[in-house]
Structure formats: C-alpha cells, structure tokens
Sequence to fold (232 residues):
Amino acid sequence: MAPDTRHPDKLDRAVIFLGPPGAGKGTQAKELAKRYGVPHLSTGDMLREHVSKVTPLGKEAKPIMERGDLVPDSLVLRMVRERIERPDCSHGFVFDGFPRTVAQAQYLGVLLRQHGYRPPLVVHFALDPALVLRRITGRRMCKAGGEIYNIYERPPKVEGRCDSDGGELEQRPDDREEIVGPRLQAYEKQTAPLVAYYRRLGRLHDVDASKSVEEVTQRVLEIVRGARQPAH
Ligand code: ADP
Ligand code: AMP
Fold:
C-alpha cells in the first residue's frame, strides 16, 4: 500500500508561493497541497483552463499570456474570489502565482480578513536568473493531469509521456525561449516588489530554489510547521 503522505495537522491558512517563473512553485505547491489535503490554487492553471475552454475570460487572457504580460488585476481577482469561496478551501489553500502585483496582494489581504483567515504565510522562492531559462524551456506538462516534468532535470520515464497516467506531455506556448525575457521583465517590475511588501509585514520566508526538489520540499515543510508553533 502506498504510504499516506497527508500531514496529520490541518493547514488552516493561506500559503503563498512567490518567486520568478520556473522557480519550482507549482512543483512544490502540488506537493504541499497533497500533504495537507488542501487545494492547490494556481492562477496560471485556472487561466489556461479558461483559454482551453474558450470562455470570454480565456479569449481576453490568451494573447496577453502568449506575449508574457500579466492579465489585468480585475479579471484575476474575480476568479480568485470565486475560487476561495468554495467549500473545499475552508481548511486553507496554497496559492502559486498569485498575488503577482501589490494591488492583488492588498485585495487578498482584505478578502482573507473578510473570510476569517489568518494573515497569509509567504514562501519566497529565490532563483538565480541564470537557472530560469533551463527550468522554463525544459518544462513539459501532462495535458490531462498537469504533472510537471523537465526534460533536463526531471525527465519522465518514457519520453513525451506522463509517468502517472501515460498522458501526452506538452510545452506551454509561453515557455518558448523568446517569451522568457518578457515574463522575467514582468516579474521584476510588477511582482518582485511583493518580496519587500511581505517582508515588511513580517510574513516572508526565503527558500533557496536552486536546491533539489526534495531539499526545497523539506525547507518548505520546516517553514510551514514552524509557523504552526504557538508564539511564546
Ligand atoms: P513555477 O511554477 O515556479 O513556474 P515549476 O514548478 O513549473 O515552476 O518548475 C519549473 C521547471 O523546473 C519544471 O520543468 C520543473 O520540473 C523544474 N523544477 C522544479 N523544481 C526544480 C528543482 N528544485 N530542481 C530542478 N528542476 C526543478
Ligand atoms: P504561471 O502559470 O503562473 O507561470 O502564469 C502563466 C501566465 O498567466 C502569466 O505569465 C500571466 O500572463 C498569467 N497569470 C497567472 N497568474 C496571474 C496573476 N496572478 N496575475 C496576472 N496574470 C497572471
């Protein structure tokens, strides 16, 4: 029987994974969410689903995402509010790729207070920009289940196929080398200021994202468990 990897404690809060594209947020958010049995909320995944279903939001977001810019705050905020109001979020959730602007962070603060959550725990994935290109251009995702691979660092057992369900692996359109520059610029200009924002609030914990997946998972768990200790 497979070991039960769910953590016995409840998360009972919002955890935010902050960091540049390719830092490993999605990989770690899936793991943490699985261990605590809470939803993994990736605004990128939600937006890609809208794009693939050709919803009005998807039609608006598609060209913006394809050129590596950020989707307007108003669209993302409505989507997030609707998502965290669903009952499966009542014991906490892990945000990956949200918030991405100071306005999003401010709105999230209000939303969490309104819904009776404690202030968020923010994990900052620091990655040398020199490593970002390899992480992003090597990324492949399972079309069906969303599992994340890397052809250089974490290849699947069978080329082009997901280890879990045998599904086809694909490259995201915005993971092409020419879109990496604009995405990093958007990060530096609009999202990096959140590092100082959350540090000032005393919410930020740093992780060296260049370490192995297993080492990063251990560090994230230490942070989450440490934050669970009552203050003395
Ligand atoms: P993000 O969500 O921050 O954009 P991902 O979790 O999708 O990042 O990871 C980006 C790429 O890097 C993926 O191909 C993933 O398999 C790979 N990756 C993630 N974490 C590590 C790590 N610690 N070491 C090496 N490769 C990693
Ligand atoms: P990600 O999967 O997190 O790399 O996001 C992919 C793309 O979706 C980004 O480059 C943006 O265009 C868009 N996106 C995802 N999350 C947000 C957000 N919180 N705010 C604005 N745009 C977002």
The CA atoms of residues 168 and 211 lie 28 Å apart. The longest helix spans residues 213-228.
